Amino acid sequence: MLRKLLIITAILLATNSLVLAQSGTLKGKITDKDSKEAIPSQVSWLESGGKQYGGVNTDIDGNYTIKPIPPGKYDVKAVMSVTNL
Question: 26 exposed, middle or buried (CB, 10 Å; 0-12, 13-18, 19+)?
Answer without folding.
Answer: middle
